[in-house]
Amino acid sequence: VVVPARVESLAQNGLNAIPIEYIRPVEERKDMGDALEVVEAQVKEGTLPIPVVDLGDFNSENKEIKQACVDSVRKAAEEWGVMHIAGHGMSAELLEKVQNVGKQFFDLPVEQKERYANDQASGNIQGYGSKLSNNSSGQLEWEDYFFHLIHPEEKADFTVWPKEPSDYIEVTKEYGKQMRTLAAKVFSILSLGLGLDEDRFDRELRGSEDLALQLKINYYPKCPQPDLALGVEAHTDMSSLTFINTNGVPGLQVLKDDRWITAECIPDTMIVHIGDSLEILSNGRYKSVLHRALVNKEKVRISWAVFCEPPVKLMLRPLEELVTEETPAKFTPRTFSQHFEQKLLFKKDLNASDKTK
Ligand code: AKG
User: What ipTM was assigned to the predicted interfaces of this complex?
Assistant: First the structure.
C-alpha cells in the first residue's frame, strides 16, 4: 500500500514554503491567491456573482411565482452551470449535524484517521485519502478527503464509514436520504425548464436502479502559499448534479467567460453544480461547470460534496426530445463508465477523487 503524505501533517509542521509538488504551473495561476482575499476583492470590484435561486418558490400555489423559479434555475444552469440554492428544504439542524460529525472525524489525530486509509492502487477508493503522486509531473493538491457512497443504503459499505464519532453513520445516512429527495426536486425544475415532463431527467438518470450518491468531505488545511497551490485542480464533475456545503470558508471557484469567479459563502444556501451526465442528456443546454478550489492562510476549510451519479452501465445520450434538425446531437452515446474511461485517457494519473471528475 502506498500511503501518500497527508497535507494535514505537512501543514502541522509549520512550513513557510510548500513542497515543490504542490506548486501549480504558471499557466494555472490566473485568478489564484488567498481565497479570503480573492473573494473580498471580487465583492469590492463588483464582479457578477454566481446566481442565487430560491427553490422554495417552486412549492408556491401561484403559477407565476413557480414559473419564475423554473426560469431562474434554467437560466443559471444554461449560463453558469452552477448556482446557490436557497429554500432547499433541508433542515439547518441536519446540516449542522453533518458538519459536526465530519469535523469531529477530521479532528482525530492523523494516525487514527489512517486506519480508514483507502487503497487506490487496488481500487478501494472509499475511505481517507489524498492525491497520489503517480503521474510524471507529480503534481499534488492541498487537501485530504474522505470519500464514500451514501445512497442507496443497500449499496453503502458501512464497514468503511467512520466509526468515530459514534453518530457519524446515522447522521450521514439521513443526509444521503434527504439529498436524494433534493436531487429529485432539482431534476423536476430542470426538466420543466426545457419543456420536458417533470420526472424526465430523474427517470432517465436513475435507470432501472437508482442514482448513486457519493460523499466527498474535503479537508483543506491552512496553506502558507495560497497563491501557488490549489486545494482541488480544475475539473468538471462526471455526475449529473453535485451539491456542495461548506464550513463557511470560501474557496470554490468556477470558470465563467474566461474568468475564475469565487463563490461567496451565503448562509442557508448550498451550491449546485451541473455535471457531465446532465450536460450530455440536455444536449449541451445545461453546462457542466469547470471548477477548482483555492486555499487560504488563515482558516481550515471543509466542504461536503455529494455527487449524484447515474448507474455505471447507464447509457448517456442526448434526450430525443432535445435533438432536432436545428439542434443535432452534440454527444455520442456512451455508458457512464465509458465516459469515465474516456475522460481518464486525457489525464495521465488515476486517483480516487478522479472517480468523480
Ligand atoms: C471536488 O471535491 O471535486 C470539488 O470540486 C470540491 C469543491 C469545493 O471544495 O468547494
Answer: 0.99
